[in-house]
Amino acid sequence: MKDIDKEKLKNKLSPISYKVTQENATEKPFSSPLESNFEDGIYVDIVSGEVLFSSKDKFDAGCGWPSFAKPIEEENIVKRKDLSHGMIRTEVRSKEADSHLGHVFNDGPKERGGLRYCINGASLRFIKKEDMEKEGYKDYLDKV
Q1: What is the value of pTM for the model shown?
Q2: Is 63 labeled as catalytic in the residue annotation?
Q3: Looking at 20, 44, 118, 119, which residue is catalytic?
Q4: Where are the beta strands (DSSP E) in the chain?
């Protein structure tokens, strides 16, 4: 999937989703409707549909971006050192599509493992629990 036709992707995605996933941009805080979404379901890569996060692991960090304690499948996430903006951070990308998702920090809830996956809503597509089977994600129903 990493050999993505950029022109087709520009036509498929919104401008902000393209900038975030393909150009490593960051959406403005509190700009994504997914930041305040707490319905049951899963969050998938907007580019590939790869399963990334469960609503069960989402929490309100108050930071302005959707935040998760952990990914559904650790192997679907790639972590890279990010030295941009004069900081040392850990970038989070999707494995299949290589989409930029956001960053992971060590300031999450201690009782949930202590991590905060701070993810751009523009990199995600939310699939409600009741729609998961018809969209081909029935194997993940027990994780929401």
Answers
A1: 0.93
A2: no
A3: 118
A4: 41-45, 51-54, 58-59, 67-68, 77-82, 89-94, 100-105, 116-119, 124-128
